[in-house]
Amino acid sequence: MDSAEVFEKVKSQGELFCGKLFGDYEELFEITVLSYLKTTLSRALEMVEKEDFDVDQLEKLLKADPKLSVSLLKFINSPLMAPPSPIRDIKHAIVYLGVNNLNLSL
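RESULT FIELD:
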């Protein structure tokens, strides 16, 4: 978003905006990540780094943090990831991303 005029036209269509008017996407991402429970993120990363991590345990952990769960589902359904069909649950998101991408996403 580069101007206040454009923002006024689209502000009713969402909550997250980026561009010169608001700052870079990376800055918004950092602010969002800080709002998650750091313990949840660190525990999830620890789980994913194990060779034999349990998908069900990771799903349970991520579901315990609704904000993180919603963000993960929004991310995986974004044009960046472009799944062939919408991913609606955490376990499907974990499997779709795979271990390597999940490590990067968290």
